[in-house]
Structure formats: C-alpha cells, structure tokens
C-alpha cells in the first residue's frame, strides 16, 4: 500500500508546480489540461488551459493535483518538508512564505533546530523543519 497526497488549486496549479520546481528542486512528472482531453467535458473556455491532473515529485514523495473551481484552501493539513540543514530550512521557508502567510515563524524548538509553518501564495500549508537527533529510546 502507498499513501499519496492530492491537492486542489483554484486555477493556479501549473503556476504553483513551476514555483515548487524552481524553489524546492521538485520535478514535474506530468500536466494534463482540460483542453487535452480527447472528449470535451463541457467546462467553460476560460478553464481549457487549467490543470485537469498533474503530478510532481518533491524529494522522494509524489503529489498529485488539479485546478478545481471554488476549491477550498487546505487548512487542517500540512505538507511537511524535513530538510538536512538549518540553512536549507531557512531558504525554503523564505521561498514558501514569499507572497504567503506566516503561520509560525521559523525558530528553534525542542524537536528541531529549525521549525516553521507557512501558507504559501497558492493556499498550501507547509511545515519546514530540520529535526534534532533524538536520543535512543530506552
């Protein structure tokens, strides 16, 4: 069994994926627009270039997504990036908070040398952290 994540955007999925590709080192696997369907769906002409289905690899995880009219922004779930250094955490936090909303400032915590939460400019919630090594369980 494999768990994966599917995100709905309000018409800016392709833009978000390009942003993640540039700032997170993600790799876009595929993007299909409504206009590429072999049979028309009756969607308005203003949505013909919007994403019907797309997939992106971020690190070793895959995320799928689509543009959905009137999609509700995600509020109770976060995409979590566990990175290898404080510098990488700070860089990614800055990129994802640019044009977005800081939910928790980047700081040191008991479990991470760097931890922060943002809602990016596309409405997606992110947690970015560089975990501290945990002592072995006894």
TrEMBL record:
Residues 9-128 form the Glyoxalase/fosfomycin resistance/dioxygenase domain. It comes from the Bacteria. InterPro entries: Glyas_Bleomycin-R_OHBP_Dase, Glyas_Fos-R_dOase_dom, PhnB-like. Gene3D superfamilies: 2,3-Dihydroxybiphenyl 1,2-Dioxygenase, domain 1. This is VOC family protein.
């Amino acid at each position: 069994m494999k768990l994966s994540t599917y995100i709905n955007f309000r018409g800016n999925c392709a833009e978000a994926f390009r942003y993640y590709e540039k700032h997170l080192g993600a790799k876009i696997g595929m993007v299909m627009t409504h206009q590429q369907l072999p049979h028309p769906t009756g969607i308005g002409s203003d949505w013909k270039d919007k994403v019907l289905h797309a997939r992106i690899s971020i690190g070793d995880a895959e995320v799928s997504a689509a543009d959905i009219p009137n999609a509700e922004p995600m509020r109770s779930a976060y995409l979590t990036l566990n990175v290898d250094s404080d510098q990488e955490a700070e860089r990614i936090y800055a990129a994802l908070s640019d044009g977005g909303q800081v939910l928790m400032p980047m700081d040191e915590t008991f479990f991470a040398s760097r931890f922060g939460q943002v809602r990016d400019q596309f409405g997606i919630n992110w947690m970015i952290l560089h975990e501290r090594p945990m002592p072995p369980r006894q």
